[in-house]
Amino acid sequence: MRRALITGITGQDGRYLAELLHSQGYEVFGLLKGQNNPRSDMVQAELPFVEFVAADLQDLSSLVAALEQVQPDEVYNLGAISFVALSFKQAELTANVTGLGVLRLLEAIRMVGGSVNNPIRFYQASSSEMFGKVRESPQVETTPFYPRSPYGCAKVFGHDITVNYRDSYGLYACSGILFNHESPRRGIEFVTRKVTNAVARIKLGLQETLVLGDMDPRRDWGFAGDYVKAMWLMLQQDEPDDYVVATGHTHSVRDFVNAAFCHVGLDDWEGFVTQDPRFFRPAEVDLLVGDATKAHEKLGWKPEVDFEQLVAMMVENDLQIEAAKAGLKVP
Ligand code: NDP
Ligand code: GDR
Known about the structure:
43% of the residues lie in helices and 15% in strands. The longest helix has 23 residues, at 91-113. The protein has two domains: 3-181 and 222-245, Rossmann fold, CATH 3.40.50.720; 188-219 and 249-288 and 305-326, UDP-galactose 4-epimerase, domain 1 (Alpha-Beta Complex), CATH 3.90.25.10. By secondary structure, it is of the alpha/beta class. It binds NADPH dihydro-nicotinamide-adenine-dinucleotide phosphate (NDP) and guanosine-5'-diphosphate-rhamnose (GDR). Keywords: Lyase, NADP. One of its GO terms (molecular function) is GDP-mannose 4,6-dehydratase activity.
């Protein structure tokens, strides 16, 4: 039985990836940080097959101990401070977890798996945020990076050190440059879930307004369940490599808001939405759209859920949750 260790098991992607690996017959271990992690019960209820291992990306010796205990065939590094807005407020923490955390995990893999013919395969969760202020569209694996946030800068370091460990020590290390991917499991702090949750509550009469920041930025939004398949496929190839994972379609935040309100029949939605400088960022990423041709050709990967299906899935989920909480029927 193959063994996989996932950092970020309590996050959106960690939970979809755990389900995928379990369905492929893996023994799945999830790295859990903190002495009383508030999300552990939720993960254990959703994914009872996951075995937790206590460690933190800020603590090298805990990572070494986790690897010694699990003896994994594959390590997926999804753990990070992943919220771009927070990274402006906690830049040093972001650099430490999202950037240096990658280096610590790679070092731990070298220490546990050996310097030569290391058998552990490694996946790094890189991000389209690394492209930042783009001068080339769509973005491909060779597009130069110009990060626009402490998060983006930390991800560039994580990406570069992954490539460097592959080049230097022959590690089987891959970096997936994933564009935004969403789902009903998306954290409420991210714009898509914030919107679908507010739209559900407004439709149910539980909320009056949705307060947002800049509605002009454009993102290439896909479905997280599709994207974790690409992560797994990357570690099943003969040679390690880096891949862009994206849908190739871009929409503005305003387009997303429009689609979500229209899904519940509130086509005339402008009156429900206000903007607040609190939600604007010191520097913005205006346009992201990826070209995943390499992933299509080499991994045989393609997304299955499109933009409209994604919005509908998320709004329907929030309608169910919010109606149940309030003791209402979904209209
Ligand atoms: P989430 O924010 O949902 O999850 C982040 C995870 O990181 C949580 O499980 C969190 O654990 C964990 N974590 C935070 N700090 C530490 C730490 N010090 N040590 C160990 N684990 C820690 O992110 P997603 O699931 O959306 O994303 C997964 C990865 O992919 C992230 O690295 C993200 O940056 C990257 N990415 C995401 C994209 C997206 O659109 N979703 C696109 C491109 C890249 P806890 O719950 O205990 O805080
Ligand atoms: P992003 O996702 O920064 O692209 O990073 P997020 O959903 O936070 O923002 C997308 C865009 O929406 C604009 N925006 C708002 N964003 C939030 N969160 N809240 C608001 O109220 C709001 N109003 C407008 C933002 O300014 C931005 O332009 C995500 C994360 O998952 C990263 O970890 C990942 O690497 C990238 O996607 C790819």
